[in-house]
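Lecture notes, unit on protein representations.

Consider one protein chain, 520 amino acids long.
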Amino acid sequence: MTDQVKIRRALVSVTDKADLVGFCRGLASHGVEIVSTGGTARMLAGSGVTVRLIDDLTGFPEMMDGRVKTLHPAVHGGLLARRDSPEHMAAAEAHGIGMIDMVVVNLYPFESTVARDGVTLEEAIENIDIGGPAMLRSAAKNFDSVTVVTDPSMYAAIVAEMAENAGATRLATRKRLAVEAFRLTSAYDNAIFNWLAATEGADTFPRDVRFFLEKVQDLRYGENPHQKAAFYRFADSKPTSLARAEQLHGKELSHNNILDVDACWTAVREFEEPACVIVKHTNPCGTAIGADVVEAYDKAHASDPISAYGGVMAFNRPVPPGVAHHIGANEQFVEVIVAPEFEAGALELLTGKRNIRLLRTGGVRPVEGHYDSRSVDGGMLVQTSDAVTEDPSTFLVVSRRQPSAEEMAQLLFAWKVAKSVKSNAILLAKDFASVGVGAGQMSRVDSARIAVEKAGDRAKGAVCASDAYMPFPDSLEVCAAAGVTAVIQPGGSVRDGEAIAKADELGVAMVFTGRRHFRH
């Protein structure tokens, strides 16, 4: 392979025209002939850059509203010909094909087009670039001889390299640029495939699920210091998703921070009321709703102040200064706060804490309506997202005692919180705040014991939520002995009758939802 290749002719056809005139002037200073198309050619010529039109090179006019202009042997022969092959060069000479040493191309904005509300199928189709990807692929395949440029951010470095090498580029640079070109075209094709497939009303789980991930950042390490890690996001992730949150303050997030923040942000979005969720090791140790987020924070923190120390926190409303004042009054160390927005006064107070990270999402979107994915050895599990969407009017009161209206309201709150607790999950709630959380135990009765221990005296008059059915009366007995008055659970066990009989014996109201919410 050839190390240095002098650029004599460049084909320029771009959608993003930022910094293009200066770049082409830099090319021209090395004697490079600029060949261009349509609007790009007009813009360059209007700026005083000497341009040769593409139809002069091909001997064929642009046609069909610009759909056909560069799909021609004079273009692709000039890009693909191997300069070290006598046969290739003889064929080029015989057909009057001149070599093209550089392609400067970026693509029609398909992704931003289909991201607009109300975009039509016709608009989307007209923004599917054909000639651009074809030129990029031809140039990238022949990187031994051709330099392929896909982004204005590359211009300055390329001009500098040419200045150092008498108008030539180096092989290592050309190869690196070729890799970037193939990255771009593969991502572009993937976006088109995904969008068009969705318009066909594709199956929930189609034959192909094509994820395209873009790196957000390298992380210091993974779950443990000896593990390497990076954070990636889906290229089509929504603007208000966690992966697109803006970090306003604090040191970089760790692998474990991101896992905790995801659990926290997912949990707080279950509520329409002002809510606060505090998470430690992916489990909510404090969750509450209130008249405002300050009250919600106070109640959530009071749920388990010891576990809340060093946790992450999420709000579903903008954070006011009052939250910052109360965090300070509690002398609470917080790793991360994520919220749709931070009021100016709160931001001023919180940024005074050097180690706290602040993430702004810009909005709150529903939990449902997207996919969850998790990698396993050699593959990936994909499922629709879990959200508490059950209609309370479909719930079944199976005990003799009916829950009061207040108990039912507390049960609905507890049910939403329990969904975010690792299975086996037992959640005690009172005054629209969690007061005892038993998470992740192999036995449900052990989760019940932990929840009761955490709650202490607050268990008296509390309600209980179990994320899956109670297969034995023991969990119910533990909770009732602590003072729990009502229980909500999915039901569905072959032993439901035993649990119902025990509830009646203990005078506890029991509600079946008909749906479980495991979180593994």
